[in-house]
Specification:
alpha/beta; TIM Barrel; globular; binds zinc ion
C-alpha cells in the first residue's frame, strides 16, 4: 500500500561532538582534538544503503568535508546527493546575516570542489529558521541553492515553528522549502522525521506513522538521521544534562535493524529526485 510513494532518505553528516545538545560541554576549539568517528559511521551507512539499494541525500558539514574529503567523494561516487549543512554547525538564529552567508558559502564551494557538481540543497543546523530570520531564504537563493529543508512545523523545546507550512512550497524568491514530516493529529503536528524519534518509538510505531501519513496526505515524507546514531561505541560525553544524554544515547544499538526494516517497508530516494527539484 505504502510502496507507491517514495520518501526522501537524508543524513546530516556531522560527528557526535557537533550536536547542539553538547555545545555547552564541547568547545569548537576542541573539535580538532576529538577522535573523529564520522568517516567510519558514514561508511557504515553507505554500506547499508548500498545493501538496501537506496539512494539518499547527505547534508554534509563543511568542517567534516575538510577533515574527510575522500568521504564526500565516496558519497557522491555511490550515486547519492551531496548537499550542505553549513560549515561550522552554527544556528542561523544565532548568526548575523553576513556570518550566515560566509559560513554557508564556504561549505558550498568546498563541497562543489570535492564532488565536481553544483550543490543545490541546504539544511540549517537545528532547523534554526523562524519568523526572526527569514532572510536565510534570500541568502540561500542568492548563493545559488535551489531548495532548503530547514524547517520543522512542530512545537519543540529546541526548534520548530508550529504554524509554518507542512509541505513543499516555493518562496516569493523562487527558493523551494521542504519541511520535515509531521502527522497532523487533532490540532497539533506530531514530528516523525528524525532519528531521535525513530530511536525513541518502537519500530512498529514509526511504520504506523509513515503509513498514516501516506494515507492522510498522499505525499512523500522525509526521514533524517546522523551517522553517530548508528555508532553505539562512540565516546560518552561527561557533563551534559540528563535530558541531552537520554536523547543522544537512547537505543543506538537498535538503529541498524530498524533502518533495514524502514528501508524494506517503504520506498526511498534522494531529495532532489523525490521532490522533483531538477
Ligand atoms: Zn546538524
Amino acid at each position: 500500500m505504502s510502496l507507491a510513494i517514495k520518501n526522501a532518505m537524508t543524513i546530516d553528516v556531522e560527528d557526535y561532538f557537533h550536536v547542539a545538545a553538547f555545545e555547552k560541554n564541547i568547545r569548537r576549539e576542541d573539535w580538532a582534538n576529538m577522535p573523529l568517528r564520522v568517516e567510519q559511521s558514514t561508511d557504515t551507512l553507505l554500506a547499508l544503503l548500498d545493501e538496501m539499494n537506496v539512494k539518499a541525500t547527505f547534508f554534509t558539514l563543511g568542517w567534516v568535508a575538510d577533515r574527510a574529503p575522500d568521504l564526500v567523494k565516496r558519497i557522491a561516487a555511490n550515486g547519492h546527493e551531496v548537499a550542505s549543512h553549513g560549515y561550522m554547525h552554527g544556528k542561523a538564529t544565532e548568526q548575523t546575516r553576513e556570518e550566515f552567508r560566509q559560513d554557508v558559502d564556504r561549505s558550498k564551494k568546498l563541497l562543489e570542489d570535492l564532488t565536481g557538481k553544483a550543490i543545490i540543497g541546504y539544511r540549517a543546523p537545528s532547523f534554526s529558521v523562524n519568523d526572526t530570520n527569514k532572510w536565510v531564504f534570500d541568502e540561500l537563493k542568492d548563493l545559488g541553492f535551489l531548495y532548503s529543508s530547514s524547517t520543522y512545523p512542530v512545537k519543540h523545546d529546541l526548534y520548530g515553528v508550529p504554524h509554518w507550512p507542512r509541505f513543499k512550497y516555493a518562496m516569493d524568491n523562487g527558493l523551494i522549502e521542504i519541511p520535515m514530516t509531521t502527522l497532523h493529529i487533532g490540532s497539533r503536528n506530531v514530528p516523525m522525521s528524525g532519528g531521535g524519534y525513530f530511536r525513541l518509538y518502537p519500530y512498529v510505531v514509526s511504520r504506523m506513522l509513515y503509513r498514516k501519513f501516506h494515507r492522510a496526505e498522499n505525499q512523500p515524507g522525509i526521514f533524517y538521521m546522523h551517522p553517530w546514531e548508528i555508532d553505539p561505541d562512540q565516546p560518552r560525553q561527561k557533563g551534559a544534562s540528563l535530558k541531552s544524554n537520554f536523547r543522544h544515547y537512547l537505543n543506538l544499538k537498535r538503529v541498524r535493524g530498524r533502518l533495514k526494516r524502514l528501508m524494506t517497508d517503504f520506498e526511498w530516494g534522494r531529495m532532489d529526485e523525490v521532490f522533483e527539484i531538477v
